[in-house]
């Protein structure tokens, strides 16, 4: 079902949000049910929105005139608007002409927003004696990540609230392997089911290069969740 504008949503015009030309834009039709990942080529207020055409042989005869939902990023805002495919043009270059939306709903990416991930994380206590007593380093499962921390689960408590740790994460950014060491503080522990303890870890005094990598990975995962990027 195509979403409608709600009074509870943040609303601006496309001109006010000013998404960057070249930004990925997800186009979803409900009837017929089709979805495309295209690029924003430009827009003119009250004129239209121009996006790249899908690659390959796409039958547009039953798409022209159809309503669609478009989503894209504008800075740190996730934007969505309802539009219609006015015309699919094969020349002078393949592109689609969409109706200019009257309003655009948007949502800012919150600083503490968590994105689901599936990562193996090595945890080691910064206190060598406690580390030995707890049988560390230990490999645990990371469930989600934010710009400020991670949630990891383990069969038993990894320590006490306020304890300091080193987390070793391995992930890919832009197809390149990254291995980083993150100082972190244990902020909360929750027993979510038998033999599963959920730990909230807050990053502590990250170096600038490390924070940049975490930020890049976070936004990469965010865009993947929205469907703008393919899974790594």
Automatic annotation (TrEMBL):
Domain of life according to the entry: Bacteria
UniProt protein name: Protein YcgR
UniProt-listed SUPFAM superfamilies: PilZ domain-like
Keyword vocabulary terms for this entry: Bacterial flagellum, c-di-GMP, Nucleotide-binding
Signal peptide: none
Organism name: Neptunomonas antarctica
GO molecular function per UniProt: cyclic-di-GMP binding
Type III secretion system flagellar brake protein YcgR PilZN domain sequence ranges: 21-101
PilZ domain segment(s): 110-220
């Amino acid at each position: 079902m195509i979403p409608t504008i709600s009074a509870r949503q943040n609303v601006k015009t496309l001109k006010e949000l000013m998404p960057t030309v070249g930004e990925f834009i997800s186009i979803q039709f409900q009837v017929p049910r089709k979805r495309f990942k295209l690029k924003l080529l430009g827009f003119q207020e009250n004129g239209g929105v121009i996006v790249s055409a899908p690659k390959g042989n796409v039958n547009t005869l039953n798409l022209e005139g159809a309503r669609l939902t478009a989503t894209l990023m504008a800075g740190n805002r996730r934007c969505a608007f309802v539009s219609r495919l006015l015309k699919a043009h094969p020349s002078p270059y393949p592109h689609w002409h969409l109706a200019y939306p009257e309003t655009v709903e948007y949502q800012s990416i919150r600083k503490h927003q968590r994105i689901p991930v599936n990562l193996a994380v090595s945890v080691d206590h910064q206190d060598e004696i406690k580390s030995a007593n707890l049988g560390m380093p230990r490999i645990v499962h990371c469930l989600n990540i934010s710009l400020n921390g991670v949630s990891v689960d383990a069969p038993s408590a990894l320590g006490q609230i306020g304890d300091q740790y080193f987390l070793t994460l391995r992930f890919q950014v832009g197809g390149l392997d990254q291995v980083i060491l993150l100082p972190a503080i244990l902020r909360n522990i929750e027993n979510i089911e038998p033999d599963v303890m959920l730990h909230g870890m807050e990053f502590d005094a990250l170096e600038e290069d490390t924070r940049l990598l975490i930020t890049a990975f976070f936004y990469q995962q965010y865009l993947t969740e929205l469907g703008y990027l393919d899974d790594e």
